[in-house]
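Worked problem 6 (solution included).
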Amino acid sequence: MDRPIDALDLNLLRVAVALHEAGSVTGAARRLGLTQAATSNALARLRRACGGDALFLRAPGGMAATPRGERVARAAAAALAAVAESIAAPQDFDPATTTRRFTLRMTDIGEVVFLPPLLDALRAHAPGATLRTVALSSGDTPAALARGEVDLAIGFLPELREGWYQQRLFEQRYVVLRRAGGGGPPSRAAYLRASHVAIESPGTGHRIVERALRAQGIERRVALQVPDFLAAVMLVARTDLLCTVPAKLAQAAAGSLPVQSFPAPVELPGFSIHQYWHPRAHPDAAVRWLRERIAERFAEPPATRVRARRVPGATR
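Solution. The predicted structure is:
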């Protein structure tokens, strides 16, 4: 029996991927080395092959995928990457001589927790390599990974939980941070009476704190809201404000600032920290070396370690 895929020009999959990543016909045409007319024609053929589904619709600034278009593009990207990986020649990588610059997507928390040990590892094993970190929104991170602009994304990023290679590193819990000498562990009543500094932290999953508190009918007195954790930690060290932060950040902050942490007196969910990468980076020997160094330093014991995995065609 003939299947729809049997009559499909597989080059059309490259068009779907390029249009999904570029967000416009012009950008997709540029990536593919085609004219806009040829790209539009290919998109029309792909729509016909999908039974007339629009797949992509006009949107402000370009084209946006429909839900089915999203599924098709992600499945096509995974399939093309798998083919490229299977035929790619093995890559050699010598950390001792490399001058590679690695780009990591992480938050200010990640910079505090991950960078010092990573810099030590580079200095010891890859002295010519350098690191660059970027802060991206949750919407921009997948495209940056897909374009190869970012080698690894590290942190609490629920939007990348499926459809990407990933490896769990460790579990985290939230604690309450306060100025050293500002008192002992706050009771639930004291926590609710206190003034707090809250963190927006766009592009991460840390909004679960506010959602969890709302679900319990808890309303804190937020005296100040800031966009990043480091600013909040500095403010806690110099004021009587409380701040609810991940435990590893609190531990790092206590090593250099007059702050102390205590268990949260309210129920808050835990979360896990992962490293994520796109299928295009999977066979890259240099990125694989870096992933291994990160896992060696930060991954929990093998008994609780989750293998890197990819879910082809999954949607966010």
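Discussion: The domain at 4-87 is CATH 1.10.10.10 (Arc Repressor Mutant, subunit A).
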